[in-house]
From TrEMBL:
Annotated organism of origin: Engystomops pustulosus (Tungara frog)
Protein name: Fibronectin type-III domain-containing protein
Cross-referenced SUPFAM superfamilies: Fibronectin type III (SSF49265)
Keywords (A to Z) from UniProt: Signal
Gene Ontology cellular-component annotations: plasma membrane
Highest rank taxon of the organism: Eukaryota
Length: 228
């Protein structure tokens, strides 16, 4: 009788422990983890985990050095720790052009999922460089190029010319910190055109040329100028 009772208690204990471990593993890991990288701005995305409770997520990263020599070490991304959003801006974590691993975990209260990794790892050289956006303006016969700011890591090459004089193209270089750039004194009645190439310095890559934009300089009247 005592032996039977002992076996029964042992069986119940095994069931309890097994059930507890199973509960810990019931929380699904995030799926469809992907990286969207545009103009050296990198955002990690994943699908929502649909379970009852307050679902949050945490993100960790591992650089190439850690991956090769201290693979047990993962860096916690503070702005993406225990967050309800299903995306994480990891731009500041990617400081060199090597492979970075990222992984995401689901949390509900004290329950955790297994980590799910981005596959394959990410290298910022794969970033998409969009066409620069430029606008030509004339004010008091000053020809100015307005360029959309891409951030601190870009240099812009502005190519501009007078309409009809495409063989005489000028080029001015400017940084993202100076996206309103004076080109030259414009001539009344002339039309000017421009195109821009964005150069991403950290990865040594150029974008394609922007669309061509033009502006017509109106001639002055007796009452002053009417520049476009």
């Amino acid at each position: 009788m005592d032996m039977s009772r002992g076996c029964a208690l042992q069986a119940l204990l095994i069931v309890f422990i097994t059930g507890s471990l199973a509960d810990l593993q019931l929380l699904p890991s995030p799926v469809n983890i992907s990286m969207v990288s545009i103009n050296l701005k990198h955002t990690l995305y994943w699908d929502p985990v649909m379970v009852p409770g307050n679902v949050t997520y945490s993100v960790q990263t591992q650089g190439e050095f850690e991956s090769r020599f201290v693979s047990h070490y993962w860096h916690e991304i503070k702005n993406c720790w225990n967050i309800s959003a299903r995306k994480c801006d990891v731009t500041q974590e990617v400081s060199t052009s090597v492979m970075y691993k990222f992984r995401v975990q689901t949390l509900v209260g004290d329950r955790l999922s297994a980590w799910a990794e981005l596959d394959p790892p990410f290298n910022r050289r794969s970033t998409l460089l969009t066409l620069p956006k430029v606008e030509l303006q004339v004010s008091e016969l000053n020809l100015v190029a307005q360029i959309k700011d891409y951030g601190a890591d870009f240099t812009f090459f502005i190519f501009y010319w007078k309409k009809g004089g495409e063989d005489d193209v000028n080029c001015i270089t400017t940084s993202s910190y100076d996206v309103s750039t004076y080109l030259e004194k414009a001539e009344e009645g002339k039309e000017y055109c421009a195109e821009v190439i964005a150069y991403a310095r950290p990865i040594n890559r150029n974008s394609s040329r922007s669309d061509t934009v033009c502006v017509q300089v109106q001639e002055r009247t007796e009452h002053g100028s009417k520049n476009a």
